Amino acid sequence: MASTGFTLKAMVAAALALVLCPAVVQAQQAQWEAQVVRARAALQKGDYAKAEEELAGALKTAEGIGPQDDRVLATLASQLIVFVQQKKFAAAEAPAKRVLEIREKARGPDHPIVAGALNDLASVYKDGGKLAEAEPLYKRGLAIIEAKKGKDDPEAALILGNLGELYRDQKNFPEAEKAGKQALAIRQNILGPEHILATGAMTNLAQTYQAEGKYAEAEILLKKALEIRKRSERARPPAIVQSTVNLAELYKAQGKLDQAEPLYKDALAVIEKAAGADDPAAVDVLEKYADLLKKMKRDDEAAKVAERARKIKETQAAPPPAKTEAPPPKAEPAPAKKEAAPAKTEPAPAKVEPAPAK
What we know:
Blueprint: H1 8-16, H2 26-44, H3 48-65, H4 70-85, H5 89-107, H6 112-127, H7 131-148, H8 154-169, H9 173-191, H10 199-212, H11 215-231, H12 237-254, H13 257-275, H14 281-295, H15 299-317
Helix pairs in contact: 1-2, 1-4, 2-3, 3-4, 4-5, 5-6, 6-7, 6-8, 7-8, 8-9, 8-10, 9-10, 10-11, 11-12, 12-13, 12-14, 13-14, 14-15
């Protein structure tokens, strides 16, 4: 999935960094900020329904302040983030389209910031299975960046990576390889051949090779990405886990089961050290490991691993225990204070990075 430049941090930065217009009624300002704060709190708790509700209200409040108010754009971008995080791609289309319309109206059809909005809408279409609708948007966004910022710009690499994913989904492997190689070359030319920020492009191209059955080429890239992430101080545990599982899945696809098994164990060890044995991130690894054990005819072990994954999922899905006493009322969080800034500050467009192979 192309996603996830969409982050809670991006939502908060886009929404709360806006400058308040002195002409706007203070009550409306406070209401909008409180709604955004509550949406953020809901997301931190994983309560997406509450976050959606608060953002829907925030959008109405922002539109009441004024249809051209920056809060409208910020709230739409936040809705887009929340829907994409839940993989509600059909619902994500509406805010993505409105963001694009606002960007085009404000800056013109060929501004680089419009390319970001085109990329976001295209990624919503692609991840929702609407490949035909996504392709021309990616191409248009890429053309804008190349014309305005150059063919070696990082934003060109971003769009090329997503376009490569689209071609892979279409089984157009020659074009997928071409786009993936271009994206990786741009990253490496700018950052260096072994920079951690180039590992996403490595993984993306490796995923294309794997889909084609070019396992040797895929293995080289996946090993390199894992090696870079392991030795980088900037690498977070989830990235190391994903690279480890990517390589394990490649070996499993080739029938190299004995080489895959220690990698699944390594991935689980990283999760347990970073977040505990019952962290939700372990579920995907456990399920893939259980599948491997079945292929190795170790059914009893496979059943135990699968049961462990099931229990973690059940624990996560279980509602919290009922409270016997009502907690004391909590004060509404105060709106974030803002420093003086230019009146027309715009939130940056949400960027969608190519997702690593799963």
